[in-house]
Design a protein that fits this description.
six-stranded antiparallel β-barrel, alpha+beta, six-stranded antiparallel barrel
Length: 567
């Protein structure tokens, strides 16, 4: 009876493992390309374990996305038992549950050769498991169905039972080439297995827009750069505002390693080093700026880059002593070198900005004037010229206004938000030149361009121009709006009182000035205006008391009023 039982068990075992076969001769070498993957969370605790394999001799590998989702870092354990870190992710797709990544590559390891032809129905295939043993057995089966999917690849159905332990193991053809990787089977009782074609995994990549890809974003391990250099630059730009300082520095280092001849990498890293604000990093930034110039094919652009970096750095110092020769004078010498090579408008714009910062206004104006006669002339360049003209000795305000006219002329009516700053600045200049009615017109245009989204201060400034050109009702409306928006600002109540006095609205003036005194009891001019309003309203006694209070607070005009009204 016992012998019969043993025989039955043996037969059952033979039936159960009938699909397990000795692999072809290539398997002993190929197995070294298959490894175990261990992913970890931020707490350094194991998140998942699974399989993967190398697909080239540079350490590029593939596995299942589920294994990496939520991982902070990961390692692989090779067939020889060596533990190597996963350095970065090269692509991921959560729908087909596949990920491509880079590892530190052990030269003793082997990469699988991707099949040059897709698998076909009826073709014999082998499932190559992860194994640390030389004596290895694995499953053998055939492809029963192929389905075309994106990236010119296929999804295979196999007459092979797979388990969670075989997910992401490679499926090989008889020539020892990998044609796909096993996918998780949602039905653990199914006698069929499934594999995603190797071409799909190989074609996974990172593009300029991948930084916001949900699948990639769900993996905490740093991402590799796009293979295309121009896309890698865009990727850097997008990453700069979303990564912390160390992560961004690592990405810059990787960009420079991958594209050592691209000056943008050194420029961006120099900017990052400058932001760290210490001597060590300033020195590194200086070295990067020199290297940027060294690798720049366009030397004019290199000199321009250095000048711009130093100019921005000096502006950020707020009077502090600069590092080394990072001065405005040095920035000016660099931009002058750029102009010697290529006198384009962009370089003159920076030259003007540097001269303006050095308070060399005639030189700055000459630079801006060149820009305004070039194809890159803009509202901003005419504005720069106008501001410079204002500060030049002997120049009239009307010359500056004429330049602001050119700036505003760059926009079409009805004006939008982008024209608003130029309208506001031209209004200010016109007001200072005594062109009050024209200034009010520009303030009105500014208001419309801002769609009424203005501050209390705007209403105050427009009211003051309106008073100068006797637009009294508009002035009253504006100062009322100002105090409505900022009722605790005493200066607005003082101005309101002054406006009402000017138009002989004594009750309104008295109420406004009393409010101003409640907010600030130490302003003699307010007591003086209040006293004047009260006396003219017929309240002589109280008015004189307020004039005397103004005199006590040092208001000199109040003394003459006291003499006048005490007679």
């Amino acid at each position: 009876m016992e012998r019969k039982t043993i025989l039955l068990l043996a037969c059952g075992l033979m039936f159960q493992t009938g699909v397990a076969q000795e692999l072809p001769k290539w398997a002993d070498k190929a197995r070294k390309a298959v490894f175990s993957v261990i992913t970890y969370g931020k707490d350094n605790k194991i998140l998942n374990t699974g399989n993967g394999f190398y697909i080239d001799g540079n350490g590029t590998a593939v596995s299942d996305y589920s294994l990496f989702e939520g991982a902070d870092h990961a390692v692989i354990v090779t067939a020889d038992g060596k533990e190597l870190p996963v350095t970065y992710i090269l692509g991921a797709n959560d729908m087909y549950d596949v990920v491509k990544f880079q590892t530190t590559f052990d030269k003793k390891c082997t990469a699988l050769t991707p099949a040059t032809q897709a698998g076909s129905v009826g073709q014999t295939v082998y499932l190559l498991p992860y194994s640390t043993q030389n004596d290895m057995t694995a499953q053998k089966g055939t492809i029963t169905k192929t389905d075309s999917i994106e990236n010119d690849s296929f999804y295979y159905t196999l007459d092979m039972k797979t388990t969670d332990k075989t997910v992401s193991c490679p499926i090989m053809n008889e020539a020892g080439e990998v044609i796909g990787l096993i996918q998780k089977n949602v039905d653990d009782k199914s006698q069929s297995g499934y594999a995603i074609g190797i071409n799909y995994a190989m074609n996974l990549s990172i593009s300029a827009l991948s930084f916001n890809d949900f699948a990639l974003h769900s993996i905490g391990i740093r991402k590799g750069l796009p293979e295309d250099e121009s896309q890698a630059l865009v990727f850097l730009y997008m990453a700069s505002s979303q990564l912390d300082q160390n992560e961004y520095l690592n990405l810059l280092n990787e960009f420079i390693r991958k594209y050592p001849g691209n000056s943008e990498g050194y420029s961006r890293r120099a900017t990052l080093y400058m932001s760290m604000n210490d001597e060590t990093h300033y020195k590194q930034a200086d070295e990067d700026l020199k290297q940027m110039l060294e690798v720049s094919e366009n030397k004019a652009e290199g000199h321009y880059g250095i000048a711009k970096q130093i100019y921005n750095y000096v502006l950020s110092l707020n009077g502090k002593r600069p590092y080394g020769n990072w001065t405005l004078e040095h920035a000016l010498s660099e931009i002058n070198e750029a102009i010697k090579i290529d006198n384009q408008g962009l370089y003159y714009q920076l030259q003007g900005d540097i001269n303006f910062a050095l308070q060399k206004y005639p030189e700055a104006f000459a630079s801006y004037d060149f820009v305004n006669r070039s194809p890159i002339a803009s509202a901003a360049s005419f504005y720069s010229a106008a501001k410079t003209k204002e500060l030049m000795d002997g120049a009239s305000k009307k010359e500056a206004i004429a330049l602001m006219d050119s700036a505003v002329a760059r926009f079409i009516t009805p004006y939008g938000n982008d024209a608003a700053p130029y309208l506001y600045e031209r209004a200010r200049m016109k007001s200072e030149d005594g062109q009050y009615r024209e200034a009010v017109m520009d303030y009105n245009a500014f208001y419309d361009a801002m769609m009424g989204q203005v501050t209390a201060e705007f209403y105050l400034i427009r009211e003051q121009a309106e008073m100068q050109c006797r637009m009294y009702q508009q002035a009253v409306n504006d100062i009322n709006k100002a105090v409505e928006m900022d009722a605790e600002n005493g200066a607005y109540w003082v101005e309101k009182g002054s406006v009402h006095l000017r138009v002989n609205q004594l009750d309104e003036a008295i109420n406004a000035l009393q409010k101003a005194i409640r907010l600030n009891q130490n302003d003699g001019s307010v007591y003086r205006m209040l006293g004047y309003a009260q006396i003219n309203k017929g309240n002589r006694q109280e008015g004189l008391a307020n004039l005397e209070k103004a005199q006590q607070l040092g208001d000199t005009v109040a003394s003459d009023l006291i003499k006048k009204y005490k007679k």
